[in-house]
Amino acid sequence: MTDTAYNNASVRVDKWLWAARFFKTRSLASKAVKGGKVEVNGHRAKASTGVHVDDRLEITKGETAFEIDVRDLSDKRGPASVAAQLYTETPASRDARERQAEERRAARLSMPRPAIRPDKKQRRALRRFKQGE
């Protein structure tokens, strides 16, 4: 166990997500939890929900979904090498994430990007087209 000795204890889920480096700030972690983007053992979590060792978390960040098992507890943010030891991602979650990344790469390649940025006249024309004028 890192930083603090835990005897059958728990850490707030927002603090743990921040310490495990899923979110850059604790307030972003708290907003994600309040927004229903985090589940603990299949139940929607509150920011004050306690995380215990061997809990399963389902975290959604944008288009990416993580399913992880908690291996250790920490309420302090440390180096990425330490944060990576706090959890293990399930193989199914890892495969799904890699598949999504590959689909995004393929979609990006199929949509050509313009060589140059549109000038002011072209931007106005695009705006009129998108607004249906």
The figure for the number of domains is 1
Rounded radius of gyration (Å)? 20 Å
Report the structural category. alpha+beta
The overall pLDDT average reads: 90
Shape estimate = elongated
Q: Taking strands numbered 1, 2, ... along the chain, how are they ordered across the largest sheet? A: 3-2-5-6-7
What CATH calls the topology is Structural Genomics Hypothetical 15.5 Kd Protein In mrcA-pckA Intergenic Region, Chain A
In N-to-C order, the SSE pattern is EHHEEEEEHEHH
Question: What's the count of strands?
Answer: 7
Proportion of β residues? 15-25%
CATH 2nd-level architecture:
Roll
- CA(first)-CA(last) distance: 62 Å
Number of helices: 5
Low-pLDDT stretches are none
Characterize the biggest β-sheet: 5 strands, antiparallel
| CATH class placement | Alpha Beta
Topology:
Blueprint: E1 11-12, H1 13-19, H2 26-34, E2 38-40, E3 43-44, E4 50-51, E5 56-61, E6 64-70, H3 80-83, E7 87-89, H4 91-110, H5 120-131
Antiparallel strand pairs: 1-4, 2-3, 2-5, 5-6, 6-7
Please give a structural write-up.
This protein is an alpha+beta fold. It has one domain (11-131): RNA-binding S4 domain (Structural Genomics Hypothetical 15.5 Kd Protein In mrcA-pckA Intergenic Region, Chain A, Roll). The chain contains 5 helices and 7 strands; from the N terminus they run βααβββββαβαα. It has a 5-stranded antiparallel β-sheet with strand order 3-2-5-6-7. The mean pLDDT is 90.
